[in-house]
TrEMBL record:
One of its GO terms (cellular component) is plasma membrane. InterPro entries: AAA+_ATPase, ABC_Ni/Peptide_Import, ABC_transporter-like_ATP-bd, ABC_transporter-like_CS, Oligopep_ABC_C, P-loop_NTPase. Keywords: ATP-binding, Cell membrane, Membrane, Nucleotide-binding, Transport. GO terms for biological process: peptide transport; transmembrane transport. Belongs to the ABC transporter superfamily. SMART domains: AAA. It is found in: Cell inner membrane. PANTHER family: DIPEPTIDE TRANSPORT ATP-BINDING PROTEIN DPPD, OLIGOPEPTIDE TRANSPORT ATP-BINDING PROTEIN APPD. The keyword Kinase does not apply. This is ATP-binding cassette domain-containing protein. GO terms for molecular function: ATP binding; ATP hydrolysis activity. Residues 9-256 form the ABC transporter domain.
Length: 326
């Protein structure tokens, strides 16, 4: 049996506030295997980014992992010391953040920053690290990579900067890449190029990818497996075919209905009423019930558990399967 590159079991991340402990991530179970892409999708405030920071050991104060396990290649890294986590982070697990201009240092050249990342994890000379940095830029298809090494972030376009971030993340050949909204600030043409690049690099290296997004177009383009998050919980999980062809949670249905499709004519897109509840004011029962058109008294009093509908397709909804209500 293949051991997943990343396996998350019962992960709960809390933040201590003046209103008590807030569960930003609440009992999440996920897994991704080598060479596969798991997309985590949901609106802002659903806990996607905090989940990724939990895996990286970068939960900001006053947050902490309260319970659960994070297995990376079979080793539980949830309780590692900061020093031990630093040997893994950036080396075996790399991360690309949403806006490259906030991640790249404006006063250092692109080459300096990639070299710094390489030398933080590999015992190589500056000359060797520079050669590796150049090779990384070539891998991400940056034109004139020799010249780009000595340029500053402000001299590059948004798409170029994102390629630099990918080059930096892949410079140590990680087993797992976590990408948090890597294409949000880019136009659709550059977005397609970045997604194609990630797919090509995955085919070349065999790395696993966890991609966090709110864009279902991105999910359809790159995902093998999908997890839909809402208010800190995974409410539906399955293959990309399961989620797109047979969505079973009302929230997933709402997300699908809000996405324009070129193969269908429609006068008006579906909108999900209301907003994601703040984590310090969660409703009783199913957390989606105030916004759900199918909700009844059971939904408002009992929290549903993830239940398998088919092999690999799980949903947390009292009303599943939804075909009964069509």
């Amino acid at each position: 049996m293949t051991v997943p590159v990343l396996e998350i079991a019962g992960l709960t991340t809390i933040f201590r506030t003046s209103m008590g402990d807030v569960r930003a991530v609440d009992g999440v179970d996920l897994a991704v295997e080598r060479g596969r892409t798991l997309c985590i999708v949901g609106e802002s405030g659903c806990g996607k980014s905090i989940l990724s920071l939990s895996v990286m050991g970068l939960v900001p104060t006053p947050g902490r992992i309260a319970q659960g396990e994070i297995f990376f290649e079979g080793r539980n890294i949830a309780g590692l010391s900061p020093a031990d986590m630093r040997t893994i982070r950036g080396n075996q697990i790399a991360m690309i953040f949403q806006e490259p201009m906030t991640s790249l240092n404006p006063v250092h050249t692109v080459g300096f920053q990639i070299v710094e990342a390489i030398r933080a994890h590999q015992r190589v000379s500056s000359k060797a690290a520079r050669a590796l940095a150049l090779e990384s830029l070539k891998k991400v298809r940056i034109p004139s990579p020799e010249r780009r090494l000595d340029e500053y972030p402000h001299q590059l376009s948004g798409g170029m900067r994102q390629r630099v971030m990918i080059a930096m993340a892949l410079s140590c050949e990680p087993t797992l890449l976590i990408a948090d909204e890597p294409t949000t600030a880019l136009d659709v043409t550059i977005q397609a190029q970045i997604l194609n690049l990630l797919r090509d690099l995955q085919a070349e290296t065999g790395m696993a990818i966890v991609l966090i997004t709110h864009d279902l177009g991105v999910v359809a383009e790159i995902a093998d497996d999908v997890a839909v998050m809402y208010a800190g919980k995974v409410v539906e999980r399955g293959s990309v075919g399961d989620i797109f062809d047979d969505p079973q949670h009302p929230y997933t249905l709402g997300l699908m209905g809000s996405m324009p499709r070129i193969d269908e004519e429609t006068d008006r897109l579906v909108a999900i009423d209301g907003m994601v509840p703040p984590p310090f004011r969660l409703p009783q029962g199913c957390r989606f019930n105030p916004r759900c058109p199918f909700a009844d008294d059971v939904c408002r009093s009992e929290q549903p558990q993830l239940t398998a509908l088919d092999e690999g397709h799980l949903v947390a909804c009292h009303k599943a399967p939804l075909e009964l209500y069509a």
